Amino acid sequence: MKFSDCHNVADFRRLAKRRLPYPVFHYIDGAADDEGTKARNTAAFDDVDLVPNVLAGSEEIDMGITLMGRRIAMPLFLSPTALQRLFHWEGERAVARAAEKFGTWFGISSLATVSIEEIGALVSTPKMFQLYVHKDEGLNRSMIERCKAAKFDALALTVDTIVAGNRERCLRTGFTSPPKLTPRSAISFAAHPAWTMNYVFREKFHLPNLDTHVDAGSNVAVSVADYFNTMLDRTMDWRAAEKIRDEWGGTFCLKGIMSVADAKRAVAMGADAIMVSNHGGRQLDGSRSPFDQIAEITDAVGGKIEIICDGGVRRGTHVLKAIAAGANACSGGRLYLYALAAAGQPGVERILGKLRDEIERDMRLMGVSGIDELGRNQLRRR
User: What's the domain range around 127?
Assistant: First the structure.
C-alpha cells in the first residue's frame, strides 16, 4: 500500500500498521477491555441518517466557526494525544504545522514529546494544552505557568483518567515509554528499520513537559497504566478543577465529560467548553459514545457552554451529524495519528484535506452553505 492509495482514515490505519513496530501500533489502535466502546464511538454515527434538502445550491460554502474565542477554518480539530514522536520522528511538530496549514485548533498532551515552549513558538494557530493532574503539585503549577508564558490559547483539564483503563493490547505487547527492548519486540523493531533508525539516531526520546520533575516515561521505562496509576492524582474533584481553572485564568475546557449532570456542573463552575469524550474508549469500556450523548447534553446546556464531540470521527458526515445534533465542533486523535505514523506531516495534511473536502462536499449535498444551518430537523434515528 502506498501513500497515494490513502483516501480515508481506514486507509491510513492500514499503512500505519505496516510502518510501525507492533507494540507502538497497538498502543495507538488499542482500547480498554473488549474495546466495545472504541468500536461504538464510530458505529454510533451509523444509527442516525442525514436528511438533505435540495435545490439550495450555493457558490460559497463557509465551514468556518468560532470556537473557544478563536476563529477556525473548519469545525474539526486535532485532539491532544501523548507520545507522538514514537509514531513519527517529528511528532507534535508535524501535527502543529499541519493544523496551522488548515487553520484549526490542535492540542498537545502533558505527555507530549515536544516542549510547550517549542510548540508555542512554532505556529500561530490556536493551541490547547491537555493537563493531566499529577500528585506533584509543583509539576502541575510548572506546566500551567509554562503554558501561560508560551501563550497557549486554552487549557483542557482531563477528568476521566484518575486511574488507567485496562488496555489489554498494551499488556500483551509490553508497550512502555520509552520502548523497552524484549526478545519479542526486538523482532518487530528489526522488521521496521526506518522507524528504528529514526528512533535510535535522531534526538533522544523524552517527555519535556514532565522530565523537569519526574524520570518516569523519559529515563525510566514505564507502561502508560503504571504511569497513570502511580503519578496521577486520584483525589481530583470539582474543587480541584476550580482551583486549576483559577490558576490558569484563561479559556478553560473540561475533557472527558459524558453526563448531563457533569455538563451542568461545568457550566456552573464557569468552564468555557466541554469535550464530550470517553478517551477514545481507552478508559471505561461499556460507556456511551460521545455522539450518543450530544443531543441530551445540548438540550441541557446548549448555548451556555461550547460542546465538542471528541472521538470516533472518521468521515465528514460524522462531523455534520454531530453538529446537527447540537455540538459546536468535533475533534479526534486516531484520525490523525494513523496518518502521522504512516507519513508524517504530509500524512496529517492529506487526511485533514480529505476530511475538509468531505465536509464541504457533504454540506453542498445537504443543501446548506454554513455550519449554523445544520439542525435536528436534518437527522433521523433508525
Answer: 3-368
